[in-house]
User: Which sequence fits this backbone?
């Protein structure tokens, strides 16, 4: 307990010392505070005085700057005028020297003791000479290189005119060539269009007996006659756009159009992928007969799952999956199978058509 009382006594003495120091500092601050307030008020007064004087000084500075700019402009103007006067003085001096030289030349040509004005008609000539001199002064200084520059410009003009004539002639030739190519293009297009339309009608009539099909020019995105309208009339129906037909009829029309295009521009071989998927058995039979007939002229590769189409092929290719799960290609030449039937008088199948069974 005595130690606790000692510690508290020390703490109380320390607090008393800090309180005495704080009171001394407060007393010192109380003495300094009036002086600081006085200095702050004096600074505010000086600031207010400076703000009142500032506009006048700024106006004086602006006026001085304007005067300085005006003096600089006057100095530049005076320098330009001085340069102009010096140039005019040189011209006048040169003209006076030329006149004096001319007058001296005239005096040398005159008889001794005779002045130019004493010669008959001398005054009129002098008047004419002075008139010509005034006209020369009105014309002003001449460019000594004007003649050379004129010749250079004339040569440049002739060169450009020759180039322009060449360009105009080349443009005329190009326009004639374009017109000729357009005319030839139109003729070829009409010929191909007519051939495709005729073949389209023929093939569609074979695939759909009693039907007809045609092609007609239509307005497209690039102007009149830039589009093609496909019109088809199936048996016992009216002529209408191909988009209004059933899926099987559209398949027949598309197949006929592809064969018509291939007839006009033949290809080494033709691949037909599942084109008979939407056809019934009768149409598939006619399709197979057509492919077999056309196969004598060009090759067809038909991908199909229809056994009627396969029966018209000369060779079958299929994918076989054995018991081990491995797939491999299997091929069958139907011509070898049909040989006995051929010997008995049956019609031979196409040698160039083939079908692939999936």
Assistant:
């Amino acid at each position: 307990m005595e130690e606790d009382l000692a510690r508290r006594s020390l703490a109380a003495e320390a607090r008393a010392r800090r309180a005495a120091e704080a009171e001394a500092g407060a007393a010192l601050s109380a003495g300094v505070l009036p002086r600081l307030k006085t200095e702050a008020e004096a600074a505010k007064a000086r600031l207010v005085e400076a703000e009142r004087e500032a506009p006048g000084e700024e106006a004086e500075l602006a006026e001085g700057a304007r005067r300085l700019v005006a003096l600089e402009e006057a100095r530049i103007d005076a320098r330009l005028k001085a340069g102009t006067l010096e140039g005019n003085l040189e011209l006048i001096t040169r003209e006076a020297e030329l006149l004096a030289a001319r007058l001296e030349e005239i005096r040398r040509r005159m008889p001794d003791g005779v002045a130019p004005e004493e010669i008959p008609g001398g005054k009129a000539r002098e008047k004419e000479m002075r008139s010509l001199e005034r006209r020369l002064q009105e014309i002003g200084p001449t460019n000594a290189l004007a003649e050379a520059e004129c010749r250079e410009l004339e040569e440049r003009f002739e060169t450009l005119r020759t180039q322009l004539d060449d360009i105009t002639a080349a443009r005329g030739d190009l326009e004639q060539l374009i017109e000729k190519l357009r005319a030839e293009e139109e003729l070829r297009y009409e010929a191909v269009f007519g051939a495709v339309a005729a073949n389209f009608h023929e093939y569609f009539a074979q695939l759909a007996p009693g039907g007809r099909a045609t092609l007609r020019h239509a307005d497209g995105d690039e102007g009149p006659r830039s589009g093609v309208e496909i019109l088809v009339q199936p048996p016992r129906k009216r002529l209408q756009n191909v988009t209004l037909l059933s899926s099987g009829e559209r398949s027949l029309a598309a197949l006929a159009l592809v064969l018509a295009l291939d007839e006009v521009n033949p290809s080494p071989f033709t691949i037909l992928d599942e084109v008979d998927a939407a056809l019934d058995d009768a149409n598939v039979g006619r399709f197979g007969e057509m492919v077999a007939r056309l196969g004598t002229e060009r090759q067809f590769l038909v991908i199909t799952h229809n056994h009627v189409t396969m029966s018209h092929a000369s060779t079958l290719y299929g994918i076989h999956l054995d018991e081990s799960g491995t797939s491999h290609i299997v091929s069958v030449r139907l011509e070898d199978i049909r040989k006995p039937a051929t010997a008995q008088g049956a019609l031979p199948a196409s040698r160039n058509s083939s079908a692939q069974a999936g």
About this structure: The beta strands are 212-220, 223-233, 240-241, 269-273, 299-304, 315-321, 327-333, 353-357. Residues 345-353 have pLDDT under 50 and may be disordered.
